[in-house]
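User: Please predict the structure of the protein below. I'd like the answer in structure-token form so I can feed it into my own downstream comparison script.

Assistant: Understood. Taking the following sequence of 705 residues as input:
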Amino acid sequence: MRTLDAILKPKSVAVVGATPRKGSIGHELMKSIIQYEYNGKLFPVNPKYEFINSIKAYPTVQSIPDPVDLAIVIVPKESVLTVAEDCGKKGVKGLVVISAGFKEIGGEGAKREEALLELKKKYGFRIVGPNCMGIINAAQDVSLNATFAPITPESGKLAFMSQSGALGVAILQGLHKLNLGLSYFVSVGNKADVSGNDLLEYWGSDEQTQVIALYLESFGDPVRFTELSKRISKKKPIVVVKSGTTAAGARAASSHTGALAGLEIAVDALLHQCGVIRVSTIDEMMDLVFALTKSPLPKGDRICIVTNAGGPGIMTADAVETLGLKMAQLSDKTKARLKKFLPTEASVSNPVDMIASAGPEEYGKTLDHVLGDSGVDMVITGFVPPLMIEPKDVVSRITEVSRRYDKPVLSVLMAEERFYNELPRLIKDAPPFYQFPESPVRVAADMYHYCQWRNRPEGKIETFSVKPNAAEPIICKKRSEGGGFLPPTEVYAILEAYGFPVCKHVLVPKRGDIIEAAEHVGFPLVLKVHGENIIHKSDIGGVVIGIKTAQELRNARRQMEDGCEAAGVLDRVSGFFVQEMVPSGKEVILGMSVDEKFGPLVMFGMGGKYVEILKDITFRVMPVTDVDAKEMVKEIKSYPLLEGVRGEKRVDIEFLVESIQRLAQLVREVRCIKELDINPFILNPDRKDCKVVDARICLDEKQLY
């Protein structure tokens, strides 16, 4: 990956399309490079001029007498291929193509981009863009600002990639307002060659980069992203803003899992497994990178609030509880120390309310004692400036004390607007500050969850003793028929082969003898309608439970046929499923579907007929480890129900975790499964009472992943 050095750490740069014409991109980009004091050789290229910005210009790249590492290309789209050929013959190692008019416009533009990639293969140079706004390396030994952004970034620890040029400008302006420095900025545009994965790998081993932020509109290679981000996130936080959330799950699906899974579900699952912090907006990203570049990471989730106003303190405490963090319990020793110098009206419990008269001295002493308390992992200070106290003095004191401790201090400052613009430059090492209480709490939660992931065990992929020979003939036969949904008996045979406990069952043809089937299964029992395209059986009266006699069974069948006729699906009914009545328990769903980009997704959640309404579910992208399976179980909102509430016994959670891993093994070994639902999978405290009572498997005729 050091091939990107020619782009990100070039010793010489040619600007092809440089011009003295003010207001043009060629002029503004040249001006940015010069004003940023690039530490290398600069060659303007334009056959119309002998000098540009008092620097000798050249008619072509080949006419430059010195070696050229990087060419910035700012010419009409029709001329880009000619320039690229010129660069290739010169031996240029990297191109940043600012010019638009390529794949993003389709048609001829897409063909032009393909031709550009052919030249890349021919000459071996790397390409950023086309249709981008350039690159920045803010390190002093390079100091290259090859963009036309209207601001001058400071040098810092944050590397940022944007797939959108316009958003890139807005982000640079936001970072400038906060006085947050960059190590690198890259606008990748169409990502014809250099991708987010390439930059991620480069920045992962770059010493001047401590935090990586990405604005993504699409994933190119999720498998490579997974491998890179899992490794890099263990040492550097990666923050992602991923657009396109409203398009999730737009396709029609023939299973619960398929209906619940969509592109954004896959993205969330992938990022979670890789330890990548996903945020929803640019504002949230700014808030988070502000803290990640200026604060140590927390050791735990216990937060203490120190404020001079009750209202903001209460709002902060509410946000702490809402986001699942803990209010720290201050020790008696800490409270006693606070009482010695705070007014009697002050509260020394958490939140610590020092009242409005608190100034720099009170903030300094209080923060010192609170940070020194072993029961505190993070502190959020709140300050509403009264007229008699200068905000800068309070922030200076907070800064001075916070630097003595290896604990994050985040600040809420409800000051005049001008203060937010002045503070980052008045006190450059100040802790991150926010305008409203919810923001630092959200940041604290993201930082804590990231640390949890970083410290979690790697996990392992379990392989159980199964009977693939029992499943293989069924699978091969269905694939030879072109795929599709398997009949229930074959679904159960496959699940049993992979160690799932299934209830006793008999599939009866539409006109078959259900009484004989009932004698085999035994009363009490359950009757279900069966048909390949009938998914929501209960909606049409297609499930009757607790049948105790043969007459009740006949009545249930008759009512079921009437219900199917009324719903207009009687012609789709192929038979009836007679099952044993399983002891009542907690109904969960296990499932999988295939995402075109990300491959198989494994799902777990609370099951039953309301699964698509409640959506209490979680997903993982394959492969799924034992740690992933345990986390999936604990992530759903209804997890306390599985643990047992109001005198109910705990279900066999260990068997549930094992079952998720068994499903993952099935998906791993049978690569033609298109969709799968196990719903409901009834769980009870005793493993022998845990049973699969309904399931669907759809196979494809070819391997899918």
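That's the full token string. The mean pLDDT is 92.
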